[in-house]
Request: fold
Amino acid sequence: MTSKPNAAEAGTIDIGGDLTVNRLGYGAMRITGEGVWGEPADPSRAKAALKTAVDLGVNFIDTADSYGPEVSENLIAEALHPYPDDLVIATKGGFARSGPNRWTPDGRPEHLREALEGSLRRLKVDQIALYQFHTVDPNVPFEDSVGAIAELKNQGKIRHVGLSNVTEDQIRAAGQIVPIVSVQNRYNTVDRKSEPIVDLCEQEELAFLPWAPIQEADEVEVITNAAREHGFEPRQIVLAWLLARSPKMLPIPGSGSPEHVESNVAAATIKLDQGEVAAITDAF
Reply:
């Protein structure tokens, strides 16, 4: 009988100095309907995907109030509450939704307070372990948005604060208001605009959560070659490359399929050599 993969094989990462999780997480955006809107076509399958992730050692789940909206957080609670002691659920606030694939930044303090309270209710927790400001709102002073989240942290409703879709200057500006422990930006083999942010996170001991981590993996020759060599799929090779790219990297691949979740976790078993890592890194 073949043993199942386990996220612990990716090693661990500390978040904020007091949360230790396995370094291969799960992103819960794809357990919603098409366009990240409404209920998934098969809610029972979505909940099975969540349970599979936890069964395979995943103890970090990333979600947001805007996924659905509300659907992802509700499904997490339905599938997993009461939560395992070591499970860290990170969520985000800062987007308003009006329909499928429609995302409108909303960083008003009143919106963020309302979003946080809703996440607490839906996730059935008294405190959010990691609350991330989902995106910068160009119509609201950045300091006002971050300041509202800092107030909620001071009230004990948030344990740690993270940022998403931000620049280095914004990370440093936010850090003057409240301690920042993580950054979640788009990053993959093809889109490397956040390369300096990855390096900054490594220098400053911040966790880096790459979103869209495995897009276009099967279109890059050096990745498909490595996949054939190791007997894995290209997207699994990309996850292995991300893990090798930086010790502060915390990939959060998502899926609504239990089988796909297991395939993602299996990437933790892949050990790329330095030459392979460099070849993928230098391909762009």
